[in-house]
Amino acid sequence: MSSSEPGTGVASVSTTFSNAKRQYQQWLDRVTPFVLYRWLGTAGLLSLFMLRIMIAQGWYIDALAIYLLNLLLAFLQPRFDPSLQEDLLADEIEGGGEDTTATLPSQRDDEFRPFVRRLPEWQFWLSSTRAMILAILCTFSEVTDVPVYWPILVVYFLVLFALTMRRQIQHMIKYKYIPFDFGRKVRYGSH
């Protein structure tokens, strides 16, 4: 098959894309176990982004900050929200017509339930890092530099952060869960 035939260019692009995708996945597989170094790299990207904003004198920060706040909230929330489960159970009881005495209890207070995040740490890191790389690339384009009155955006972000974190902390206290284990292993009994 010569290079002038129609399918050659598409096959070459497809092969190149496939190889790049495979190399990207190999790199992700290699960095997976190094949690601290991954987050330090992401913090470095955030520092680079801030430096780029100061050098470019741009207004790029608010969208990234709100996206990262959204990721943080998903990281702190449980996959199966107890308040939602209580609402569903209350709806079933109020549904009427059904005999609810024969159903098994949906939860027990003494049952061990590990904390399962709505957004796992790996996805949180990967999404944050991708967003920061995209944000850095956006600082090189005049199209994404929308002039705004920055104090309003900063106040908006701080109020949004305070309100959402207050609500999240109240939820954590009400349903008695802590999204971090701090490396401690819980031991029962005297072993």
UniProtKB/TrEMBL annotation:
Query: What's in the GO CC field?
Result: endoplasmic reticulum; Golgi membrane
InterPro entries under this entry?
Rer1
Keyword Transmembrane assigned:
yes
- From the Swiss-Prot or TrEMBL record, state where the protein is found: Membrane
**Primary localization class, coarse:** membrane
What are the UniProt keywords, alphabetically? Answer: Membrane, Transmembrane, Transmembrane helix
Q: Name one GO biological process term.
A: retrograde vesicle-mediated transport, Golgi to endoplasmic reticulum
| Alphabetical list of Pfam families matching this protein | Rer1
Membrane spanning stretches: 35-53, 59-76, 148-165
Mode of membrane association? Multi-pass membrane protein
The UniProt entry's sequence similarity note says: Belongs to the RER1 family.
The record's function comment reads: Involved in the retrieval of endoplasmic reticulum membrane proteins from the early Golgi compartment.
What this protein is called in its record is: Protein RER1
Q: Which organism is it from?
A: Laetiporus sulphureus 93-53
Q: What is the lineage of its organism?
A: Eukaryota, Fungi, Dikarya, Basidiomycota, Agaricomycotina
